[in-house]
Design brief:
The chain is mainly beta and 86 residues long. The chain has one domain (3-74). It is built from 1 helix and 6 strands. A hairpin with a 3-residue loop joins strand 3 and strand 4 (40-44). The longest helix is centred in the C-terminal third of the chain and has 7 residues, at 66-72.
């Protein structure tokens, strides 16, 4: 996937049609620096990108490091209130 179509502030998605999980911070010829909510800064390479269109970057989950992949399953947990145990 050529990175030349991606711009800073494009939103990052784990899959098409899902809620965004972060944003691109920097674009370099061979990599992207992205901020992932609740995880922090991550370097993305062309093999990590499934698609880029309409200011959206969709990740290729099977190519991501295991720790990031595990985090993505819970990226929005803090946004939803949990029932109290009382």
């Amino acid at each position: 996937m050529p990175l030349s179509t991606i711009r800073a502030e494009d939103e990052v998605f784990a899959a098409e049609g899902q809620v965004g999980i972060g944003a691109i911070r920097e674009v370099h010829p061979d990599r992207l620096l992205a901020h992932v909510e609740g995880y922090g800064e991550v370097t993305l390479r062309p093999e990590h990108i499934r698609a880029a269109h309409d200011r959206k970057v969709v990740l290729r989950l099977e190519a991501l490091p295991e720790d990031l992949l595990q985090h993505l399953a819970h990226a929005h947990d803090a946004e939803y209130p949990r029932p109290s145990d009382t």
